[in-house]
Amino acid sequence: MRLKILIIEDDIAIAQLIEMTLRVSDYETCICYDGAEAEKLLVVGQFDLVILDVMLPGLNGFELVEHMNQRKQTLPPILYLTAKIDVQDRVRGLRLGAEDYMLKPFHPLELQARVDGILRRHNPMEERYQVLDVSLNISTREVTRDGEAVEVTPQEFDLLHTLMRHKNMALSREQLLQAAWGYDYLGGTRTVDMHVQRLRRKLHWEDTIKTVFKLGYRLEAKG
């Protein structure tokens, strides 16, 4: 079953960017542009996560959560988004029960990573990815091909996970670095090329992990 995320954001461009980012990971999304309408949706809808802008017209993000708490309405995990850097506001959001807090502007890959982390904590289930003849198990960090174990390094595992999550999408070397190595990695993009070559050999995916000219790579798996 696909996990469902409610996006509450009054900036249409930002809301659509968030939606595009989450749909890449196959999450179901619903967008709402103001606090009052969001309150109605939260009463009747079933969501696994709420991405909530603080500065909303009418009913702001903090007031929305306070209203729901007063009604003793059970809320899904909340990830606040805001352009404000006031520590008091951040503390207020966390005290209202927010799971996480992100400042605008944000990088889509960082948002995706935080969403994934929150949902894993609240939906503890074995997570598997199957692409063609290769299976990847998140909880055990095992990779198999046609049922046979494939030895991969921790970094190769993280890179393969990123490619499988974004199959059929062209990803730049910079995007792969950020997603699989992290934002604090200081090495160059050449390391992505070396790890891709190793995965191709180990998985016999020479024709499956495609090179995208002057950009990066795409895991091609139709159907």
Order of helices and strands: EHEHEHEHEHEEEEHEHHEE
Classify the secondary structure makeup into a structural class. alpha/beta
Number of strands: 12
Unreliable segments of 5+ consecutive residues? none
CATH homology superfamily of the largest domain: Response regulator
> What is the CATH first-level class name of the largest domain?
Alpha Beta
Query: Helicity, in percent?
Result: 40-55%
CATH architecture of the largest domain: 3-Layer(aba) Sandwich
Q: How far do the termini sit from each other?
A: 19 Å
The profile of the biggest β sheet is: 5 strands, parallel
CATH topology of the largest domain: Rossmann fold
Q: Give the integer mean of the pLDDT values.
A: 86
Strand order of the largest sheet: 2-1-3-4-5
Strand content: 15-25%
Q: How many helical stretches?
A: 8
Principal-axis shape equals elongated
Q: How many domains, as an integer?
A: 2
Rg (C-alpha, Å): 19 Å
Structure description:
This protein is an alpha/beta fold. About 40% of the residues lie in helices and about 20% in strands. It contains eight helices and twelve strands. The protein has helices at about 10-25, 35-45, 60-70, 85-95, 110-120, 155-165, 175-180, 190-205; strands at about 5-10, 30, 50-55, 80, 100-105, 130, 135, 140-145, 150, 170, 210, 215-220. The strands form three sheets. It has a five-stranded parallel β-sheet with strand order 2-1-3-4-5, with helices on both faces. Helix 1 crosses helix 5 (about 110-120), helix 6 (about 155-165) crosses helix 7 (about 175-180) and helix 6 packs across helix 8 (about 190-205). The model has no long low-confidence stretch (mean pLDDT about 85).
